[in-house]
Amino acid sequence: MVLKQTITSLFFYSFWYEGSKQSIRSQLSSMGSTMITIRPFSNVTVGGGARLGSTGLRTLVVKDAIAIQDQSEFITNVSPAVSTSGQAINASLNWPTTLQGVSPAYLDIREWKLTAGITFTDDDVASAAKVCLLGQTVIANIFINSEDPIGKIIRFNKIPFKVIGVLEKKGENTFGQDQDDIILAPYTTVQKRIMAITWIQNIYAAAIDEKSSDTASQEVTAILRSNHKLKYTEDNDFTVRTQAELIKTMSSTSSLLTVLLTAIAAISLLVGGIGIMNIMYVSVTERTKEIGLRMAIGARGVDILLQFLTEAILISITGGLIGVILGISAAKLVTIFLAWPTLVTQSSVILSFVVCAITGVFFGYYPAQKASLLDPIEALRYE
Hints:
Order of helices and strands: HEHEEHEHEHEEEHEHEHHHHH
Shape: elongated
Structural class: alpha+beta
Number of domains: 2
Radius of gyration: 32 Å
């Protein structure tokens, strides 16, 4: 019973932990598995020692994005980016959202598709056209009765935009942000008509593949340092981050759960093993005459040892089997009713039975050895 409860709890948490890691990876990958993000950075501090926020820095310009696109061998797409918050308005309906200015390459970088309409073009960027793509959350809040937004004119603050495309649903990201609560437009339009700035806030790029992300990141750093004419003694006035780095950071944070689960596993298996040992001791004591009778008719000590050792292993494996079934059932119910991510892996199930067998052998050996060393005459006389 103890081992069954132990295995149930262990594998429920194991499935939840594996599911959480898988969820983190899949969500970060949904943001663009090869995406590289370049943001402005500065060590300059203001009063009180606080550093300037990245949105207030002007160290990145469109020429930087062009230089990366032209000079990099490991980058396939590059998009300047600026963003601002405001009200999206359609007739009497309005919704607070984010307007992000990007280039057409941004959709490829983010691996983001359209469910309807078309995307804006390089000509739209060059002319700062007032066209946009809407996320699903924005559509749900400013259009009613499943109204088709394509071709409609909406306003962002006071500026009119023609809706030319609808973005597919992305859902929340790893940080709990709604990725569909967004409007995409040409970055020049947002720069000139909304924000009235000449610099850019971010640069998004895509590496050739995931394996090339680190090399591409180093290449981007070298290009920008050259473009900004930074001396070798000067710090970068920008930061470069890859999705692989984000995954590594999130994984290292969640690794604390691994340590916790390992400690729980050690204590729980110890308790379960002691339970098996007690059961086997009681069994040996109650069956002393049976052991003596078997020895009297020719059973060897090793036969008695194997008999009780096999019983110990069967007890532990049976408890483990019930525990795994309950653990999987609990994980499924949690996923259904609480929407927590869980992942049942074949390796976890196999490991459960290996652990159960080892536990049975380890804690069942001493009682089995005690039974094998009994004197047949004394065992037959036992009352």
